[in-house]
Amino acid sequence: xxxxxxxxxxxxxxxxxxxxxxxxxxxxxxxxxxxxxxxxxxxxxxxxxxxxxxxxxxxxxxxxxxxxx
Length: 69
Fold this sequence. Notes:
With 69 residues, the protein is of the alpha+beta class. It is built from two helices and four strands. It has one domain (3-68). The protein has helices at 23-37, 63-68, and strands at 3-8, 13-19, 39-45, 53-58. It has a four-stranded antiparallel sheet with strand order 1-2-4-3, with helices on one face. The mean pLDDT is 75.
């Protein structure tokens, strides 16, 4: 079973971790989210026993949007 864990930090960076998928399957699973949240700054393929993929993206957030959070 594939799982996606998404963490949105206060600085606007989004971290995505995938469990239960490997390689291209991982990339396909996260593609829509990556496109929605912004440009990929860093991608790291992790050990299969842990989380196989971690993606970090950055989206600029205005001050008024930040206050709403």
